[in-house]
Amino acid sequence: MSCCHLFTARLVFIPFLFAVFATAHTKSCSEAFEQEAYIRNIRKCKKLKSLGAEFGWTLANSLEIEIFLGARLHSDKGWLAWGVNPQDTPQMAGTRAIIGIRHSNGSSTVETYNVTQGTKLGCGLQPSKLDDVAVLMMKFEYLEEIHYFAIHAKVVLNTTSYNASRLNHAWQVGDASGGMEPYKHSKTMQHMNSAETIDLETGRSLGNDGHLERLRRAHGILNIVGWGTVLPLGVIIVRYWRTKSGIPWPHGIHIACQSIGYILGTSGWAVGLWLAHSAKYYSFPTHGMIGCFIFAFATLQVTALRLRPGTRTNTASTGTCTTTRWATLCSL
Q: What is the value of pTM for the model shown?
């Protein structure tokens, strides 16, 4: 196998290998949070998939659960929430929540709330009793060692509505509140992707949530490696390496980088299109528009491999082609 072919094979293999390992990795809790949980006799712990939240729990039996949720709050009126949802899918509407709220005077409160469809539409959220969840104990505390705020609670679930081996739970972080009312949180992907179905006996996430999360990461990795790294690298190599080394073979690496970068980036773009089509509760039109814009310019850049002016083409055409390709590189 020639040096150029070996380089090409590695360039294709490494990004896909990186994407597979990065998306398959499951994180446990940080050591500091795990110690805090251990002090409270909570033995199971995992990092949740969004908002930097960490979740610990002890399953006394199939009905009684002691939970410990921690995350950073970035406002002196911020709030932290955790809850369970008896519906078929994990989501905000319908969640029986415990919400801890910081106040500007340095104090804090914690209460139970019923999150309804009206809450999602903008109606105010006030403390209320929970019909199918009994809260035996709840605390909202500050963990000074790791700068987390945490909810520590014991809850008893209704047998007809919940199953500890397939429990829909949700968590959330907000930056503003007024009195006992937590105001609406941001609508970023992190905030909209803060619910899952969990098996409390094993700690595994169930359903399609883990699959979608892996696809989102693969989408980002493929686009960053393909369009953001390999494709521009091909332009840089042929522009600087050839003129300084005086040898012809960097042009082969240039073609390999352009082709492989385009394939990887377009694969990530296609995954993004599928994720956008399958999304139920959120959309990112600006992100999608930028992706389509980059795809168009990346296609133009790779098409230039076939439309590159030959040795007999006049200087003006060559200059136009060079300008177009550098404009494409800058857009990427």
A: 0.69
